[in-house]
């Protein structure tokens, strides 16, 4: 509730572990080890130690601040339950995890001693270093003391309501919160409404708050700690966050990453290039004409294909046998297919101006959506498999949302011809590509247009990463771009494949979606490392054109392609 109501940005990191330092590399570590072997320990004493024991050690450890390393180790040992070991390290090193004031603040919040917590906060210094602060509480630069007070008083208010002490809760609201929230009418209105709840359970449900004896105080402490200088109060689980950065960094720089398991901390991570998929092990040729789309199911056990021959074929990936053959559209070619997230249904879109929903086990028609005035180009599902969004060349109904009864729930009003769609897995972003040179990004939850992007070249496909952070746009000029959906920064560009006037699909794939893969007008399939943009593979695929690609979501060593030669290659 705190983060939803207040919207305060983290000040010094979070338990997810956004780094606030630089990463070491192998060369730097080797040099540091070499210096450590050749040089005697430095004799300078770190003045923040409890006693003189640190005088026997240098101020640094292999180039890192010895106090920082030690305090992080003490925190990690405590996190893992090794409290005696943590105390021993603190005693032997002379370093404290937290000074007495910070420890008292932590205890006050966790025990609900709100007056004591506010008193300690009142005496907190602003933006000093650990050495300057002595034994005090230090706020992070830019931290708002009033916001922290609001959080403390809000928790006090909720706990009083939980105990059904409405008289004191009302007094806290009027005397303590209103003076601080005079401009925050929406917050005050929300908190006032909680006074009307008939029971503590009703209040907790409405406030999305789990009570004084749940995790709410720990959550409050986490929020408050982000406003306190990390030099006196470490961000939560700091060692785990740093180790996660190490793993992410090694994965990001592994050119042939095919192992979905997290890297070991014992050694540097590298994947064997011989495990990278670059050999065709099967060709499927049961279609009678050009293939325009091939797509693995979410569980990776089935593959669907469609194209000019107006059929949808569903294949068993293990046996490569046909499971279902659907004569989906008799009057027009099939432009796109999409599996429902539960893999029980598939939508087919056609140039015959229609879209249909099919049962993937039996091939039976589940629903035919209302006919459009122009071809249906693309379709996506919501995460609950209950709604379908279609894109069409019909400007009056370019993007529509449907339920499974065939009812049109919503029509986006901006008029353009939608050539391709994708919806982020978290349900936040709907991206539509038009048939000119732009794509359009909507907040799917509010249905409002967030922004438009002129690519200066016609896009041929759009797709969103599984973490819902990145948009991949393929363009007719032979370039694909990776774009951060929120910041709108172009993160990487991929070149080498041939564009053209036809739909050429690209996508993400491999372990941790480490690669970008695309078809090409010249019949090849191209694979790049997602983060570096380095070409990893160029493979001959189809003649004359490779139209679509799909990477198996559960097997990082398998992908499929299709093309104008009516073949699927695995």
Automatic annotation (TrEMBL):
UniProt keywords (A-Z) are:
Repeat, WD repeat
Where, in residue numbers, are the WD repeats?
284-325, 327-368
Point out the coiled-coil segments of this chain: none
Recorded hits in PROSITE patterns, A to Z, give:
WD_REPEATS_1 (PS00678), WD_REPEATS_2 (PS50082), WD_REPEATS_REGION (PS50294)
Task: Report the SUPFAM superfamilies cross-referenced here.
Answer: WD40 repeat-like
Superkingdom of the source species: Eukaryota
Q: What Pfam families does the record point to?
A: LisH_WDR26, TPR1-like_2nd, WD40
Give the GO biological process terms. Answer: proteasome-mediated ubiquitin-dependent protein catabolic process
Q: Name one GO cellular component term.
A: GID complex
Q: What InterPro entries does this protein map onto?
A: TPR1-like_2nd (IPR054080), WD40/YVTN_repeat-like_dom_sf (IPR015943), WD40_repeat_CS (IPR019775), WD40_repeat_dom_sf (IPR036322), WD40_rpt (IPR001680), WD_repeat-ST_regulator (IPR051350)
Keyword ATP-binding included in the entry's annotation: no
PANTHER family documented for this protein: WD REPEAT PROTEIN 26-RELATED (PTHR22838), WD REPEAT-CONTAINING PROTEIN 26 (PTHR22838:SF0)
Query: What is this protein called in UniProt?
Result: WD domain-containing protein
User: Per the UniProt entry, what species is this protein from, by scientific name?
Assistant: Schizothecium vesticola
């Amino acid at each position: 509730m705190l983060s939803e109501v207040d919207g305060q940005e983290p000040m010094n990191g979070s338990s997810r572990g956004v780094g606030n330092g630089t990463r070491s590399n192998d060369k730097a570590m080797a040099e540091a080890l070499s210096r450590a072997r050749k040089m005697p320990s430095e004799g300078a004493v770190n003045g923040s130690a409890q006693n003189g024991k640190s005088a026997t050690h240098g101020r640094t450890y292999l180039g890192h601040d010895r106090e920082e390393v030690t305090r992080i180790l003490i925190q990690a040992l405590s996190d893992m339950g090794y409290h005696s070991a943590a105390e021993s390290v603190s005693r032997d090193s002379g370093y404290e995890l937290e000074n007495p004031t910070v420890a008292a603040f932590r205890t006050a919040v966790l025990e609900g001693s709100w007056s004591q917590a506010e008193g300690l906060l009142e005496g907190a210094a602003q933006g000093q270093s650990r050495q300057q602060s002595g034994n005090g509480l230090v706020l992070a630069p830019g931290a708002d003391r009033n916001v922290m007070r609001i959080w403390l008083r809000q928790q006090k208010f909720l706990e009083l309501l939980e105990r059904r002490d409405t008289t004191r809760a009302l007094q806290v609201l009027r005397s303590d919160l209103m003076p601080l929230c005079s401009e925050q009418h929406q917050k005050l209105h929300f908190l006032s409404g909680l006074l009307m709840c008939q029971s503590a359970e009703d209040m907790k449900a409405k406030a999305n708050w789990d009570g004084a004896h749940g995790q709410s105080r720990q959550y409050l402490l986490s929020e408050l700690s982000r406003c306190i200088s990390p030099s006196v109060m470490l961000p939560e689980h700091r060692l785990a966050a740093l180790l996660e950065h190490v793993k992410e960094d090694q994965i990001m720089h592994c050119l042939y990453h095919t192992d979905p398991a997290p890297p070991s901390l014992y050694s540097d991570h590298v994947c064997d290039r011989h495990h990278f998929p670059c050999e065709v092990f099967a060709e499927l040729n049961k279609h009678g004409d050009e293939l325009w789309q091939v797509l693995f199911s979410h569980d990776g056990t089935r593959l669907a294909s469609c194209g000019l021959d107006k059929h949808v074929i569903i294949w068993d990936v293990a046996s490569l046998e046909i499971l279902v053959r659907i004569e989906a559209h008799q009057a027009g070619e099939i432009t796109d297919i999409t599996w429902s997230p539960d893999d029980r249904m598939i939508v087919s879109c056609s140039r015959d101006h229609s879209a249909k929903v099919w049962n993937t086990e039996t091939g039976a028609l589940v629903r035919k959506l209302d006919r459009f005035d122009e071809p249906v180009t693309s379709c996506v599902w919501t995460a609950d498999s209950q709604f379908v969004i279609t894109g069409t060349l019909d400007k009056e109904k370019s993007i529509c949302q449907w339920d499974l009864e065939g009812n049109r729930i919503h029509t986006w009003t901006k008029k353009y011809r939608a050539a391709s769609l994708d919806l982020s897995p978290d349900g936040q972003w709907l991206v539509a590509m038009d048939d000119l040179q732009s794509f359009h990004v909507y907040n799917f939850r509010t249905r409002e247009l967030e922004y438009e992007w002129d690519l200066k070249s016609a896009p041929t496909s759009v797709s969103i990463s599984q973490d819902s952070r990145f948009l991949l746009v393929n363009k007719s000029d032979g370039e694909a771009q990776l774009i951060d959906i929120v910041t709108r920064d172009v993160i990487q560009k991929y070149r080498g494949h041939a564009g053209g006037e036809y739909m050429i699909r690209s996508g993400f794939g491999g372990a941790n979606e480490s690669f970008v893969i695309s078809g090409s007008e010249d019949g090849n399939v191209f694979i790049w490392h997602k983060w570096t943009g380095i070409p990893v593979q160029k493979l001959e695929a189809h003649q004359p054109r490779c139209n679509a690609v799909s990477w198996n979501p559960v097997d990082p060593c398998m992908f499929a392609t299709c093309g104008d030669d009516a073949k699927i290659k695995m």
